[in-house]
Amino acid sequence: MTLPTRLAPSTSPDTQFFWDGLRERRLLVQRCDGCGALRHPPRPMCPQCHSLAWTSIESSGRGTILSAVVMRHPQYPWFETDPVVVLVELEEGWRLVANLAGVESADGVMNAAVAVEFEDFEGDLTLPVFRMVAP
Ligand code: ZN
Prior knowledge:
The longest helix has 8 residues. The chain folds into two domains: 46 residues, no CATH class; 76 residues, CATH 2.40.50.840. The chain is 6% helix and 39% strand. By secondary structure, the protein is mainly β. The strands form two sheets. It has a five-stranded mixed β-barrel. Strands 2-1-3 form a three-stranded antiparallel β-sheet. The chain binds zinc ion (ZN).
């Protein structure tokens, strides 16, 4: 049996742009055409003004770690060490959860400046991952 290198995300017409953007090395976020609010995860309606109209904008991919955990359970076969999962506030003011590369512990990562990178997997899947950078 061959194991996938990652679980594939479920996609919908509302989320496809996000996954397509990652394959193009672009971190995209929904922006409401009605009020300009950014929202993630992608969804059909703006929670602020209830507009169904939206476009996507490209994020700088730079942000700050707001929260971090080491994921010990469940254990997945594709992680050699327990991954550090972070909540990042991007410069544009939206938030994204992703793994933090280059560390094996969540110690000392709070409020660290990070930049996004893109990691490719089998099945035409690209995921965002953050790495700490100089502020
Ligand atoms: Zn809106």
